Amino acid sequence: MFPKTVYIHTIGCQMNVYDSDRIAGGLAPMGYHRVSTPEQADLVILNTCAIREKAEQKVFSFLGRMAGLKRQNPDLIIGVGGCVAQQEGRSILDRAPYLDIVFGTHAVNRLPLLVRQVETSGGRLVDVAFSDTIQESASCQSLPAAGQISSFVTIMQGCDNYCTYCVVPYVRGREMSRTPERIIAEIQELVAAGILEVTLLGQNVNSYGKKEGLCDFAELLKKVNAVDGLSRIRFTTSHPKDISDKLIACFSCLDKLCRHIHLPVQSGSSRVLQRMNRKYTREIYLEKIAALRAVCPDIAITSDIIVGFPGETDQDFEETLSLVREVAFDGLFVFMYSDRPNAPAAKFPDKAPEAEKAERLQQVLGLQDTITLQKHQALVGTTQMVLVEGHSERSSAADISPDKIPDMQWHGRTSTHKIVHFPDVKGVSDGSFMGRLVAVQIERAFSHSLWGKPVFREEGRCSIR
Ligand code: SAH
Ligand code: SF4
Ligand code: F3S
Predict the structure, then answer these.
(1) Do 391 and 429 meet the contact criterion of CB atoms below 8 Å apart?
(2) pLDDT in tens, 75-87
(3) 162 lines ligand 2 (CB under 6 A)
(4) What is the pLDDT of residue 181?
């Protein structure tokens, strides 16, 4: 077996990042190792996203670049997978004559076979079949990279919610949950390979297991919490309509569960939420937030918002702004509504002009920036446990004067998912704080991060939980 190289380019959400790792894991036994540029590669895989038009445009501009590489190296194999591949199928082959493989969201496990077929007998292959069972495969496991401490773990695939703006149910198929045994076994393997933090992934993790009659999501969290050697658990995404009291209670009783929830609201107007088919009102959303804060007062709450949904009036938009003020989110992702060909809202009347969507986007982002900074400032003086993810040579923290910038600094996240930078402490870090939980006293607040110093509880030692 000759050593070969694969370059994987990932666009889109954490699911795609996880799938790209599985793709790498599945190709490794064929001799492929991952490289960081397409120019070095024998095989290029593009993992695509169809959530908004812009994401889809990225696919075709990347493929345009690959055309040039294929002219220079006719043996280069190029494959396109993910959500655009699922949506467009064979028609991508027509648009990109130099493409060898189109594989859909349920074909990740079959990719090694497709690559083998192209290697041995050529041909232009398409596999966009949906399966009605979860595709598990021992060979397509994600392999953590050296030094990696955090990993995604998909617990379910697909979505049955059919929000009227969204393409996901059409490109990822029906909701299906993996068994708790599979999930726990994968997490145990990851922990054995050095992983300290897992993020459980699903489009709507709160409905985990319901269809299959498996345990519910709160029970799954308890099982994950019991995995020895794991430090932290995160999950995404939660749908407000399915978040149960039992799940909310987990934030007070599971010691490894991080104090952060991403709970997309999409709009502050109940009228718009109904047209989006979200199945909750503004009032129900606010009740869920209150319940979360009642069990875990310092829980960080982040969200997604779509501005310019068809028919969104000035009054609807004002309600979104007032909800953002009322909840005071820790962070927000804000998107301009984008027509998706399969989604019902594409046919709704009263589309907002692009300029109006852009204006609304800026207004929400401006409001949130002020709130985020206030929340960060409120943390100055507190001590936070930071799980260290990496280091950099000199600070990019703009507000620290150059003479105070240390030569080496570490960064990681708080339980509430905030990024913290802190200086190296010679003689204490033993060369590395990597992967350690370090108590950091917060000294400065910036809009996207915090700065602090490690706290020492006894001479020469840093307090590490
Ligand atoms: N399953 C998750 C989110 C998946 S997509 C959930 O239900 O929240 C991530 C985000 O993209 C969504 O929360 C939404 O805010 C945004 N989004 C989805 N479709 C969109 C569209 N057609 N136009 C603009 N934003 C969209
Ligand atoms: Fe899309 Fe709605 Fe499903 Fe989220 S819950 S993936 S927004 S259809
Ligand atoms: Fe994009 Fe597919 Fe994720 S459409 S957001 S990559 S599920």
Answers:
(1) no
(2) 999 999 999 999 9
(3) yes
(4) 96
Residues in the chain: 465
Q: What are 334-392's pLDDT values in tens digits?
A: 999 999 988 999 999 999 999 999 999 999 999 999 999 999 999 999 999 999 999 88
Question: All domains of the chain, ordered by start, with CATH?
Answer: 4-127 (3.40.50.12160), 147-258 (3.30.750.210), 263-378 (3.30.750.200), 383-454 (2.40.50)
Question: What integer is the mean pLDDT of 139-143?
Answer: 63
- Percent of the chain at pLDDT above 90? 85
* Residue 178: C-alpha distances to residues 134, 161, 227, 303, 364 (Å): 7, 18, 17, 26, 37
- Ligand 1: nearest atom to the Cα of 167: 19
The atom of ligand 2 lying closest to the CA of 167 is 1
Angle separating helix axes 314-327 and 282-295, nearest 10 degrees: 10
Give the H or E element holding residue 290.
Answer: helix 282-295
pLDDT digits 0-9 by tens, 266-292:
999 999 999 999 999 999 999 999 999
Q: Is 172 in the pocket of ligand 2 (CB under 6 A)?
A: no
Residues 398, 387 contacting (CB under 8 angstroms):
no
- Top mutation candidate among 335, 340, 357 for ligand 1, by most atoms within 8 Å of CB: 335
Report which bound ligand comes closest to the CA of 305.
1
Asked whether 50 lines ligand 3 (CB < 6 A), one says: yes
195 close to ligand 2 (CB < 6 Angstrom): no
Q: Compute, in angstroms, the gap from residue 202 CA to the centroid of ligand 2.
A: 10
Instruction: Give residue-wise pLDDT tens across range 440-458.
Output: 999 999 999 999 999 976 5
CB of residue 266 inside a 6 A radius of ligand 2: no
Q: How far apart are CA 400 and CA 386, in angstroms?
A: 20
Ligand 3 lined by 168 (C-beta under 6 Å): yes
pLDDT mean across residues, the chain: 92
Given a cut of 60, is residue 463 above it in pLDDT? no
Probe residue for ligand 2, chosen from 156, 163, 303 as the CB with the greatest number of ligand atoms within 8 Å = 163
Q: Select from 13, 168, 171, 272 the residue to mutate for testing ligand 2; criterion: most ligand atoms less than 8 Å from CB.
A: 168
Report the alpha-carbon distance of residue 262 to residue 260 in Å, rounded. Answer: 7
Class of residue 298 by CB neighbours under 10 A (exposed 0-12, middle 13-18, buried 19+): exposed
